[in-house]
Amino acid sequence: MQIGFFDDTDLLVDEDDKKPDIFVYGGYFIEQESLPEFQGKVCAIKRANGLWDHAPVKWNMKDDSLRKFYDVDHWLSEDAYKLALSRSSAIRLQLFELLAKFHATVMISARYDKSHKPEELPTYFSWTFENLLQSMGLMAQARYPEKNYPGFTLVADWPSTALERRMFDVYMGGYHLGHGISSNQSYFSGPLKQYRFADSLYHASTLHSGALQLADMVVGCARDFLAWAIKGTKPQRIVGLFDHLVPLFYHSPNGKIANYGFKLAKGFVFNGSYFDLEAKIVEFTSLSKESEP
Length: 293
Description:
Strand order of the largest sheet: 5-4-1-2-3-6
Order of helices and strands: EEHHHHEHEHEHHEEEH
Mean pLDDT: 90
Number of domains: 1
């Protein structure tokens, strides 16, 4: 059985509009039978950095919800939060190294919203999730040609009020019908139920789940990669981290990541030119190697 942990995030690209315009959904799969050991390793990394097992960590350690969680009601403290903040770089690196040790498969889906209409935001998040499900179906089809599917369970961070029912509906369409609710397109893989996916999406809280905290880091790192690739932001935050994700992305037999483990909508056109994800990954990898001491 494969169990996946997934989260969502967004990115502001168009500075003329203060609403997010790139939406990202992603995370990773590991073997479900290794989950107890995996959770234990996550806790061990926290303890090695001076934190309690239940102290939450995220890609953005300055996240307001995270900071507020560090209080006496959760057996935590402001001092523990300051320690987590000071150790954030080491914690991120050690957790990303853990993904490789457990042979994780990373998957990301992103879409660019040109409309800037607030009411469209749930639609774009739904699309990224739906597109991710389509990629999962194709992955299951390609990896298990003998149809000995191990089964798949998806656990996602608890969605916002605007999204929660919609995400269940998106999953229902993919699972039962192999048909997109928001895109109105048929899955090339067919219904997910034939690959032994669970019949429903499961939700949990990132602040309470170590496995989801790592999914938050994965999707946050992918978002910051896109920020560097599109906006030209400084890459220091992801150098030495996104590198760990690259070999873990689901990919084609010849190593192609774009449209496999990292799927972008066709509307990814900036300054009149198509965004070449594969080329940007190669460029970043070369840049990161140049930054090594």
